[in-house]
Design a protein that fits this description.
Length: about 250
């Protein structure tokens, strides 16, 4: 797990709102509702925010995009582990965003860099394009960007791993994720949806079941992320423990 907490919170509430693309009033409202952790109070009683706040705002935005109410979002966030880093939250957002029919948006380069939180070189843009995070749009100088993957893609730009290795890792994740999605969908269809609708003609019951299906998606994503993180920690511990090295 990336140690984002080692990064000193340096953003003021205005800077945080600007980077997240929301208003200061929205940031304060989310803080009041408990959706955002409190800022670190510095000199002169000025609150400062860090990467975790930015990633959490992005996750809230994506959950709202999926149609969840603030109360449902609060329950979702409350169920997350307390020690999630900004990178962990970014992964949650990226996976939640995959349920959206189309998370892409056309933006100019200045807007792209603002959302990325940094300037992007031509080499950076090529790597993000290779990861399917963005592609050039028909508008001159513009890009079609998958906003759900942008922060994760930007974080990977600084990872000291060969680009080809990242692409292979991406292929492995996509293949296994697709298999899990297929099997979970079949399970839901056969064991939940089928028995519920079999012999039923009441349209209200059918609609309620469709609503249940839609609201189950974020819960399934959370379960998948949690299970994957635990499995990855166990695999890394086994692969790099002194016992494995001596063997």
């Amino acid at each position: 797990m990336a140690d984002d907490r080692a990064t000193e919170p340096v953003l003021t509430v205005d800077e945080l709102a600007s980077k997240a693309g929301v208003t200061v009033r929205t940031v304060r409202f989310y803080s009041t509702r408990g959706l955002l952790p409190p800022p670190v109070i510095g000199p002169r009683r000025v609150g400062h925010y860090g990467p975790e706040h930015l990633s959490r705002l992005a996750l809230i935005e994506e959950l709202q995009h999926q149609g969840m109410t603030l109360s449902a979002i609060q329950r979702y966030l409350d169920a997350l582990p307390d020690d999630l880093s900004a990178h962990d939250l970014a992964i949650h957002r990226a996976l939640v965003a995959t349920w959206a029919p189309d998370a892409a948006r056309e933006v100019a380069r200045t807007e792209l860099e603002r959302r990325a939180g940094r300037s992007l070189s031509d080499g950076d843009l090529e790597r993000l394009a290779a990861m399917n995070v963005l592609s050039p749009s028909e508008t001159a100088g513009g890009f079609r960007v998958d906003l759900g993957l942008l922060r994760l893609g930007v974080a990977l730009l600084d990872v000291p791993i060969a680009h080809e290795t990242l692409l292979v890792a991406r292929r492995i994740l996509l293949e296994h994720a697709r298999t899990a999605a297929h099997e979970l969908t079949a399970l839901f269809r056969d064991d939940v949806w089928g028995p519920f609708t079999r012999g039923e003609s009441d349209p209200e019951r059918v609609e309620s079941m469709k609503a249940l299906s839609a609201h189950m998606q974020p819960m399934v994503v959370q379960a998948l992320v949690t299970a994957f993180q635990r499995s990855l920690r166990e695999e890394l511990r086994a692969a790099f423990s002194p016992e494995s090295e001596s063997g």
